[in-house]
Amino acid sequence: xxxxxxxxxxxxxxxxxxxxxxxxxxxxxxxxxxxxxxxxxxxxxxxxxxxxxxxxxxxxxxxxxxxxxxxxxxxxxxxxxxxxxxxxxxxxxxxxxxxxxxxxxxxxxxxxxxxxxxxxxxxxxxxxxxxxxxxxxxxxxxxxxxxxxxxxxxxxxxxxxxxxxxxxxxxxxxxxxxxxxxxxxxxxxxxxxxxxxxxxxxxxxxxxxxxxxxxxxxxxxxxxxxxxxxxxxxxxxxxxxxxxxxxxxxxxxxxxxxxxxxxxxxxxxxxxxxxxxxxxxxxxxxxxxxxxxxxxxxxxxxxxxxxxxxxxxxxxxxxxxxxxxxxxxxxxxxxxxxxxxxxxxxxxxxxxxxxxxxxxxxxxxxxxxxxxxxxxxxxxxxxxxxxxxxxxxxxxxxxxxxxxxxxxxxxxxxxxxxxxxxxxxxxxxxxxxxxxxxxxxxxxxxxxxxxxxxxxxxxxxxxxxxxxxxxxxxxxxxxxxxxxxxxxxxxxxxxxxxxxxxxxxxxxxxxxxxxxxxxxxxxxxxxxxxxxxxxxxxxxxxxxxxxxxxxxxxxxxxxxxxxxxxxxxxxxxxxxxxxxxxxxxxxxxxxxxxxxxxxxxxxxxxxxxxxxxxxxxxxxxxxxxxxxxxxxxx
Length: 634
Prior knowledge:
- The chain is mostly beta strands.
- It is 2% helix and 42% strand.
- The strands form 15 sheets. Strands 4, 5, 6, 7, 8, 10 and 11 form a seven-stranded antiparallel sheet that branches. Strands 9, 13, 15, 16, 18, 20 and 21 form a seven-stranded antiparallel sheet that branches. Strands 22, 23, 24, 25, 26, 27 and 28 form a seven-stranded antiparallel sheet that branches.
- The longest helix has 7 residues, at 5-11.
């Protein structure tokens, strides 16, 4: 497969380091994508030594922490927006925030395990087209960085990804526009000079001077710290290719999710390269919401099948296409795909369920990219104090090893099994500020953070381990070899797709690509369901639980619809409670005994005044007796 140099570069993913020059490198040198030779020891050292940054691609231990970040802020709702960077680190460090092409520099000191907020001028948000609004963040120690784009009642945040993990291919998340005033957005920031960028547009788009139709390619050249912003109808699934690494952002100026709801809110996430996307996910419903959550599964490769809790929901999606679905606020889901995908979860508009909330877009980390420790931060209390939450997904038998700020998780955290996986999920409230979350045995778990306020919200992943499937070619290879037919034998068990300098395997419908990226399996394990009345057996023996049942074998009754029995009883059947003494009602929320205001032995003792059926005095509050079986002195 012989193509022009530029076409070859566009086909290269962020995890492929390819020889594009006939220049030879010595055995002690690494060849960059553009043919430059650098010492081998410079590869994966956290610094860019290749002019195109390819020496920092394919590094197995990359994460969202780093010493250098390149970011940009998308356009928000009309009017001024507050732009904020939040930085935190387990080590004390000196940091610098620069907008080099705008002459802006801010420096400061970050104390270990604290949160620093840096407010930026609203004029630094990206305008349409190419501009000079790129931001460079650097430090002398690794840190975690979050961006917050905030205007009254329209806010969202993103997890910043360090420059050394950026790639050459991306697929973009966004949402549909409701009106011409608020558009779907793509933002790109240049990390190197003379970078050629091509965007395969999934919808019509406009850059301020040129209009594009859906399905065409928009091609640009940008330089270091330049930004490119396009707006369109719904740019979800647009694919970005570049010949040098770039930072990519997807979102929406102010989206109504779903379209008929109110109010609109800003959406944004920094997008990881396609090379780091995954195939297996688990999701947790958003706390306090009762109207459900919306999801989009965006394919990065042709022929992608999508399974939700073991059931095939979308088949043969082409790259850039997506499957959208809504899940109830009681649904804990397992999602699998036969090719790498990008999964985003949307908070719905406040009008959907009348709760204090609004839309945000949250990128869900794949199970393959979970970490064993995180350093996260909420927005500061000013200008808006959010109610903040953590969502955690952890192996069933590893929950007790989790630590929040070096302490066991609060006792009120309620865990729910995720059907089809040996994982459990939970959401719970956290205080404003910086937090550490880790596992004492270094078991890996997933984490996201989000928050709500009156017609306002934000959400972003707490972190992820950005491992790429890496293919590094030898320095002297200048033409492509069809690995799918090399020696008359395919390296793939099912389908082999040749690419320049490499190949990609895919599987027939109903099969899953395995960890070796070559084998396919639809495991013939026996059905795990305890009863066909409780669940449906799916591919691989996994059990898709019917409503009201949970656990790996669907044998555990669930009481989501009755508020988990208000923690005052046991769930004995689907949404059926056996209430503790002193409580009654379908959710065990009503007291069984009146307050005895005339009984001296109950009413004259502080915190007493409630009785059981034998008129024994019990402790309690104005809302009822205590959850604990404690009696008042007689």
